[in-house]
Description:
- The structure holds two protein chains of two kinds.
- By secondary structure, chain A is of the alpha+beta class.
- Chain A has one domain: Histidine kinase-like ATPase, C-terminal domain (Heat Shock Protein 90).
- Helix content of chain A is 41%, strand content 24%.
- Chain A has five helices and six strands.
- Chain A has helices at 12-29, 33-57, 94-97, 104-110, 117-125; strands spanning 4-8, 63-68, 73-79, 90-92, 128-134, 137-145.
- A six-stranded antiparallel sheet of chain A has the order 1-2-3-6-5-4.
- By secondary structure, chain B is an alpha/beta fold.
- Chain B has a single domain (4-115), classed as Transcription Regulator spoIIAA (2-Layer Sandwich).
- Helix content of chain B is 41%, strand content 31%.
- A five-stranded mixed sheet of chain B has the order 1-2-3-4-5.
- In chain B, a hairpin with a 2-residue loop joins β1 (4-10) and β2 (13-22).
- In chain B, α1 packs parallel to α2 (57-71).
- Chain B is globular.
- Chain B starts with a strand and ends with a helix.
- Classes of the chains: A alpha+beta, B alpha/beta.
- Chains A and B meet through α1, α2, α4 and α5 of A and α2 and α3 of B.
Amino acid sequence: MATVELTFSALPAHVRTARLVATAIARRTGVAEALLDEVRLAVGEACSRAVEAHRVHCPGEPIRIEIRDDSGRFEVTVTDSAPNDDIQSSTGTANGLVAAGTSADWMFGIVPEMPGLGIAVIAGLADDVEVSPGPTGVRIRMSWPAATPNGVPAR
Amino acid sequence: MDLKLDHRTEDRLTIVEVEGEIDVYTAPRLRELLIDLVNKGNFHLLVNMEKVDFLDSTGLGVLVGGLKRVRAHDGSLELVCTQERILKIFRITGLTKVFGIYASVDEAKEAHGRDK
């Protein structure tokens, strides 16, 4: 069962609120302090991507976040309602997605839109990421180890 | 925290002081400043990120866009950053190989002076 569900309008100003909420719940759930910055950045990236997609395709539709902590892990799922054409379905850990080149030419080539960079950053931060693109939107699920019931970190 | 921007020019090097959070909401202001500086002939930029609390890929895009603009004028855009949580996103994206990253403004100014 989701611990917290949040929907927000596709406005850039709300992304900060979303990442602050997620970080606060992560802290309460017992995610290690060293990982909180990663949670904050990854959730922010997922929400930023969703906001940008909604602003192009469906600015009136809300973006949905589900935050769960009932499986021994802190799990965040960000779901948008915008059709997508910039990412591939993928599951796995960080390095599997951050495989693009690192030359300036590569980076300059993607600057105008930077498609997929936010996803790459998420993959580099969360140790468990699942990106599920569909015809009616993209779902990004990511998780981190949370404290076990006795307060001992899971890893 | 909002984004605070300031800039000054010292010996042909324009130092941009950035404080706060650079994200999808605030990054457009940094983009506008960098574009404005380049349009006014400032082609050697040093962005001091020591007081940046948060940086996401939108902010990275703005910095890369700025680098692209100054390079079109044979200029440079380099960074001052020692915060591990900020450096991490540069490493993840491979941008440590694209930007010159210094530990202090003085160190960057010294390197800039050697390159002139």
